[in-house]
Amino acid sequence: MVSREQKRAALLHEKLQLLRSITNSHAVNKSSIIIDASKYIEELKEKVERLNQEIATAETSNHHHHHNPNLPMVTVETLEKGFMINVISGRSCQGLLVSILEAFEDMGLTVLEARVSCTDTFRFQAVGGENDEQGETIDAQAVKQAVGQAIKNWSQQSADQD
Q: Is it true that domain 4-64 has CATH number 4.10.280?
């Protein structure tokens, strides 16, 4: 019969081996594995810190230098019901989404589906439907202008905040 102590020891050993492999430790005894693991955690913390700083500097430098003249870019396609709107902008997109959605609301457009990603550029794709109470159709050009205006307002606001 395996005693409870032996089971506990075996389980602990298993967990330590797991910890050892996760933290890329080559240590053999218990305390060394734990020391390696805590070093590994510290390294990860530093990595996160560095990445956060890189993101922060990228956002501030992007604000001033890399103004791609073609960005933000807005394309609007008319669909059978409503529009497909694509917005591609530079890196930082805080508050931009809100501005665009407010513009939609002002025009009486309902956002049926939206996809937003802020990885390297701000991309916003929305399928907007029209609120048909008035029965009037909104043309794609008007939508494009409204979104363009929302972006302009937003970029002026964010420039004021610097």
A: yes
